[in-house]
Amino acid sequence: MQLSKNSINDNSIMNKRILIVHSGFSSWVHFNIYEINAFFMKRYGNYKIDALICNKAVTACDFQTTGNVEIYHRHDWQKKCETCIQHTKKRLTSFCSELIYQDLYIDDTDIKMVDSFLNALPEKITQDYYANLNFKGIEIGKRAYESFQYFLKLGGSIGDIDLIPGTVAYEFLSSSILHVISAKKILKNYDIIMINDIGQTSWGLWADVAFAYNKKVLLCDVNWLLNNPPLHYREITSRLYDDAYEARLRHPLFPGIHKVNYIFSKLSENQEYINKGKSILSNRFSEKRINEFDIHNKYCIPPNKKIVVIFTHLCWDNSLTFGHSFFNSYKKWLLTTYNEIIKNENIFWLFKLHPYELGNHKHVHPQYNTLNYLKKIVEEKPSDNVKLVDTPDINTSDLIPLMHTGITLAGTVSYELPSYGINCITLSAGLHSNLGFTIDVKNEDEYIQLLKNIENLTELDDRTKKMALAYTGLLHSNYISINVEELYGEEGYETKKLSSEKIEKYVDEYFDEFSEMIHRKNYNPLIQNKNSLDTIVPIQSTNAHRKVKIDSTLNLLVDIYRYASNKNSTHSISFRNSLKKGLYSIQNFSCPICNNEYEWHPIAYSVEGFKWNICKHCGLFQLNCRLPKNNMNDFYESGEYTDICTGGLINETRFMLDYKVTARLITALLKRLKYDFSQMNILDIGCGAGSTVLAMKELGATVKGYDLDSQKIQFGQSIIKEIEIGDALAYD
User: Fold this and answer.
1) What is the DSSP-derived secondary structure letter of residue 597?
2) Backbone φ and ψ of 281, nearest 5°
3) Domains of the chain, earliest start first
4) d(Cα 383, Cα 574) in Å, to the nearest integer?
5) Beta bridge partners of 481
6) CA 65 – CA 59 distance, rounded (Å)
7) How many CA atoms lie within 13 A of 366 on its CB side?
8) Residue 481 phi/psi, 5° resolution?
9) How far is CA 27 from CA 33, 366, 476, 505, 698, in A?
10) Looking at residues 36-47, what average pLDDT do you find?
11) Which residues of 525-539 are buried (b: 16+ CB within 10 A; e: fewer)?
């Protein structure tokens, strides 16, 4: 069954191919989903279905276990790995054409590359640093961090991470790099990969690499909205993605933006979905455990105050994986929210804990969890207007009658609360948000302003309520319900082997539905949030990135001033005063490539007078309205540059953020030009700490960087040696 490395690279024997990528815990449910989807895809496009067999090191790190709550314990991987791999091979062989062995694509050079990368990292790093690590343009840190959290069921603050070989945090990172290295070699030969999740180490990384190579990703899952569904029933939901943003925007369960838009435009003709939504929510919230009077007494809620409920998530559930929240961590959201709500004494605030976080549930770490993290925050800044709903005896249905507004990152209350006429604030771009029945916040400033004025929100109108109900009904009609028990072959339940003939009958019956389901789209700019924030949130911001106006036809500069600080900071004021006094001057410069002086395509500008333009003659994107050379040393050494342009971020954090953005943007642009990086010589003038230089070096280019900022260079040289202090233009 093994396909040799030589044959897989022989394009003459290739057909259209799909690769199933699954490692770690080998659930029979997963394999059933893969097999059913494989049969549909064979019918859909005559695809040849292969499957990946991961090596032990990688498989080990994808195990998800709660056997030990010690963060730095050393796991005995080998026994479980061998059992897992053998079971995986046996099950996949039953319906796949070939097994692709990952070990064939990891050689000694690759192992040395992994060791070199890990050895260059400090032994103790912050969680943010860990989560932002990037290897050859792929976000290995984010995937490793998600799995690290999932593995130990972590939430709350664990402090800095010790990178000790053999421990979970270290091995997940090592596993992530091995995945990227092998994926880049293997996926050249495939059109589609089939995975069960977009998060976690293996699934997420292979999806990231697939998108980087312009491959498609078939994300196949089940309906996780049902409460305790029978094991033999599987509500299959699949989506074929060709874009990373869309894949992370919404789960395959999402009905598709065009269908949602159509149903909303004809609500009166789609009463069936509204009625189904009512029925689903009636069943979901039928149980009442405590009345309103007892809740008021329990938490000493003043009768004249409106109540806002913040719905926290299961701490390790990677709520940020889907939806593109502007908060880069779960903890940051909780801390920011608490620090702001204690200032608004017009509202009584309740943090509603996820039920899995309560009652010593096995799915949550006993020490590092949301409840303990919130308790710590509350102890440091106590408030009579904030309480934690830390008991399983109170559920959402008990809170609905007394709730003014709900807040969630991306939870199911996004559509549940509006269905009852209650405003729900979401902090993501995806999942159930941005459809017209939620209040969708776009950035942290807007969120903070909303918390200050949240009492001014008015009740939802009847149409918005019906939209949420119709969406609820539609959401629960968006899958193919299959009785897997009917698909078992002669070997039956114990081996979990399905009958090909029986699956084919399901394919015959549901093929049209499957074809429509996998091609649903996730976003449509025509759908806007009905509940505008403008009436209750003043349009104001002190963040410098608000000073930049971007050309509507270009979006490459979204990150200009991304790290900039408060425009009223000491250094920012000092800089503007220096301009007024004539100590500094912003001047127009000709293009250094073609000497063009007058013909520019404007892109962006700041209130200080800096301008970013594209030369119409040679196409160079540049900051051509800037300080002259005689001002630059003062600008750097005064601290104004660091404060104005980098937000005062420490070198380590700034480098990782720059590297993350640079690796994506520069790599993508140059790859489109189809350059051979190994033949390129790249000079970065004004290289800062060398983040761009590092990105180009990792692509194989010969690199050199110069910058006037000695502090940046000194820091950067600890990471990359090919940078120097100096003015590159002064050299012959």
Assistant:
1) -
2) -70, -35
3) 5-222 (3.40.50), 264-475 (3.40.50.2000), 556-590+626-730 (3.40.50)
4) 38
5) 235
6) 13
7) 7
8) -85, 120
9) 10, 26, 25, 24, 37
10) 92
11) eeeebbbebeebbee
Q: Each residue of 663-687: pLDDT tens digit?
A: 566 766 676 666 777 788 888 888 8
The pLDDT of residue 671 is 67
Sign, Cα dihedral of 685, 686, 692, 693: positive
Tokens representing residue 168 in the block: 């979970």
For 516-630, list the strands marked E by DSSP: 587-588, 600-605, 611-615, 621-626
State the number of CA atoms in the 13 A half-sphere of 709 facing the CB: 21
* pTM for the model: 0.69
Rounded-to-5 percentages of helix, strand, coil across the chain: 45, 15, 40
Residue type, 452: K
CA distance 632 to 296: 61
Write down the pLDDT at residue 364: 78
Residue 72 has pLDDT above 70, yes or no: no
Tens-digit pLDDT profile for residues 179-228: 999 999 999 999 999 998 776 667 888 998 999 888 999 998 776 555 44
| Chain-centre distance for alpha carbon 534 | 28
Structure tokens, 481: 């319900």
pLDDT number for residue 218: 94
User: Between the CA of residue 97 and those of 37, 47, 487, 732, what are the distances in Å?
Assistant: 15, 10, 20, 60
Q: How far apart are CA 643 and CA 99, in angstroms?
A: 54
pLDDT tens digit sequence for 113-128: 999 999 988 888 888 8
Q: Which of 285, 542, 539, 484 is nearest to 401 (CA)?
A: 285
